[in-house]
Predict the structure.
Amino acid sequence: MRLNVIKTSKMNRVQAIRVFGISTIAIFLAAAGMANAAANPKPTPCTPSISSCGCTVTQTGTFTVTDDLNASQGLTKAGNCLEVSADHVILDLQGHAIIGNGAGIGILIQNSGHDTTVQGTDLTETGQAIINGWGTGLEDDANNVVIELFRQFGGNNFTPTGNKGDGVLLQNASGVTVANFNASFNGGTGVEVQGGSSNRIMNCDSISNAGNGVILASSNVNTISNCSINGNTGYGVWLNTANQNQIFTSSVNGNGKIGLLVGCHKEGKCTGNKGSDLNHLSSTGANGNSGAGITVEEGSSNNQITNMSSAGNGGTSDLIDNNPSCDGNLWFNNAFGDASQTCIH
């Protein structure tokens, strides 16, 4: 009997230890879960009618902004006004303004928000939307997005202060259309495209930005058309390691550096092979820039520059090709004051 009592006592102690251990693990996991939830809170979902900053569109559908928004109303966890995480969303600002405090993003379309449309207004509305005062006006990380009908991403002649950084930033996004908008007086670049491909920038003004007018960086098969890209402190348009892009029926006038730069300039932070190849530049004016009107840098080849006009620029020539004998670049039917090589026509 004594042996049985001893065995039973040992078994009870073992069971107690097991229960204690399981309970401890359960408490630890529960505490960890609560800590993780506290560290990663769920976003505040936007309702179909949005009247303040600080929410995320988490469901497919149509969402409308019903009043002017500003950063003082509250922000998302990432410090932005509005975010879109759902796909196939229509976000209509109905002509309202989204005003920031110098940081964060006015509207962020996350990479999960593909096939979304963000419109500043529509044909039935009298006003057009403004996004100003943010670190970046609008950032899109998703594919197949339409961004259109914005009066301002940044400032204007009457309010010459824009977003602290870029007006519009496309980050590894493809198949995006940005149309009928003004991205001016920003502290960075009017429209910056980093990565991605097959995007369209149409019917736009990118004027008096402290950085550049438009940058296509490591991004291919994009189109810029019917845009005024003038008076920027840096380059008008910079194709930085960017191939098979088209620029036509636009202007790149009066910029503080080169009007249209193809390739990597000596001051640029370039990636890849540093060349920009197989681009077509046509029917665009590049006049009165502080640097050359158009420069194709060494290592960029098989570009076509046709029907361009370029005069009154600073630097050594209006049109410059830094490749020996233009190295496969075709310069044809251009009107210019002077050129760096006889292969430029």
Notes: The two ends are 112 Å apart (CA to CA).
